[in-house]
Amino acid sequence: MPLGFTAIYWxxxxxxxxxxxxxxxxxxxxxxxxxxxxxxMSNNTGLFFAGTSVAPPDAITVSYMTFITSGVIGMTIxxxxxxxxxxxxxxxxxxxxxxxxxxPMPRSQILIGTTLSGITKCLIQTTxxxxxxxxxxxxxxxxxxxxxxxxxxxxxxxxxxxxxAGLMFLSNMIGLKVNNHDVSQAIMALLTLxxxxxxxxxxxxxxLPFTMKLLCYVNPLxxxxxxxxxxxxxxxxxxxxxxxxxxxxxxxxxxxxxxxxALVMFVLAIFVIKNIRDF
Amino acid sequence: MKDAIINVEGxxxxxxxxxxxxxxxxxxxxxxxxxxxxxxxxxxTTTINLLITLLRIQKGQITISGVNVAKNPDAxxxxxxxxxxDHRLDRDLTIWETLEFHGKIHSLPKETRRQRITELLxxxxxxxxxxxxxxxxxxxxxxxxEIARGLLVHPKVLFLDEPTIGLDTKARQRIWHYIKQINRxxxxxxxxxxxxxxxxxxxxxxxxxxxxxxxxxxxxxSSLKNxxxxxxxxxxxxxxxxxxxxxxxxxxxxxxxxxxxxxLLYLKNNExxxxxxxxxxxxxxxxxxNLNLLKPTxxxxxxxxxxxxxxxxxxx
Lengths: 279, 316
Ligand SMILES: Nc1ncnc2c1ncn2[C@@H]1O[C@H](COP(=O)(O)OP(=O)(O)OP(=O)(O)O)[C@@H](O)[C@H]1O
Ligand SMILES: [Mg+2]
Fold this sequence. Notes:
Low-confidence stretches of chain A: none
Helix content of chain B: 25-40%
Number of strands of chain A: 3
Distance between the termini of chain B: 37 Å
Oligomer: heterodimer
Largest sheet of chain A: 3 strands, mixed
Order of helices and strands of chain A: HHHEHHHHHHHEEH
Structural class of chain A: mainly alpha
Mean pLDDT of chain A: 88
Number of helices of chain A: 11
Low-confidence stretches of chain B: 310-316
Strand content of chain B: 25-35%
Bound molecules: adenosine-5'-triphosphate, magnesium ion
Largest interface: A-B, 27 and 27 residues
Number of domains of chain B: 2
Structural class of chain B: alpha/beta
């Protein structure tokens, strides 16, 4: 079995561990979302949704902070992965990629290595944001038994891996295809905007206009956030004036959607890296 | 053509309208040090990129160690090592990490890797700097790291694109010593481009001169020198322009080259005596100021075939 991906992974992680400023900044952004957006909106949701509907008796009612912690986790993974794709772009720009692609290592190993390092970064961030949300008063894993917490944590990790893998394949593909750093950065920014706002990260998708809702149906971020809410809050809860009944079917459709997303991106990325010549 | 480890037939490559390589044929025998010489923009790097599977082959055929490069690039990559012309290093890694990374992607076993890295760092005299970051190295040190990286893997064919550019004389010598050693002891074939004629002359078994994408000459250094004429006169006259026209018509002279210092007369054989030379000039009222008899050097061969002075190389 080719182990070249371990070299790629090793290098990415060394550089990640060294970039203290980058780690700090990449955590600062989600934390700022939680602090500024989360806290200020928490004080307003009561006004917006006063009397719109009443929590059903079988659903747990959770705070807005609890609701958006999942959204911020999704958003952070989205940003981290799309940003990481630029690493391959830099490798290309600084010519390092040439030395890698003339080595006997299969090119798919590059993809696997960078994807694994992206996943690692995302898992670290997810953990830290979850803890931080907890500190800010998000009711995560509230009322769970210890065994439930453990299975939920495992589920959360598995879905995070699936989602970040799909995103890493996508961003690596863009990083490989685009020859100009500014262009690739612009593409990433352009992608994050619709993905983020046509989702259920900050508000319920049910209130979105029809076309946005359609976008939401093909948006992996929305499926991922559903699964995070399932694992951290529960299958049936009430927040932001809405009753969320994700249930096992919801979790299953998230799994299928994220699985398809990761698979399609993997196939496309492999195709791109196998056929690209201008390094 | 037995034992040709590299075989190139009818190879052409264009970048849009620019024809960089124009229908070239050559072969390199196993275990040789082969120098590919030519002026800037001659098509050397393009040829190397075609050989090492970085460019898609548009026309022609290449085999390396019996493997067709177009059909089976993966198998070719198992047989080659490359030092690229321009800097290709990760600024944020240390020297040691750079070499470790390269060894790992070439699946060198840990023991061999560590041992070779230590050995090579001593050769390029960077042993005590192994934990320094690439971004903090001087240009020559960076080049040394790249050479050490290229030499880490002992492949069947090692491609060196202007390897010693920007290095001091001592460093060049130490590196050449190592290249000769792996060439001799491990039968590594070396494909080299360089603008240092002394290097090509001293170290290579075979030389190939390319200009504007076409092969102008090939052979051993001595056969190339002999081919351009036995000897060369270097003269200075009162009217170099007119003299060059007159002398070019003499049957004994194969070729006249003008340089800033006078004229170079490439002789077909050694029968042109100095007195005949003087006589043929004085008929036209041209006086000879200076006359030197030179043995051809590889520089002369280069100028003869490319019609240009040797490019002064720029440190990248
Ligand atoms: N990527 C490219 N796109 C377009 N043209 C190119 C490209 N690379 C090289 N060329 C052109 O091809 C020709 C040959 O270039 P090449 O790099 O092979 O020369 P070289 O012999 O290696 O020169 P040097 O001694 O300066 O390194 C030049 O005219 C150059 O402008
Ligand atoms: Mg070149």
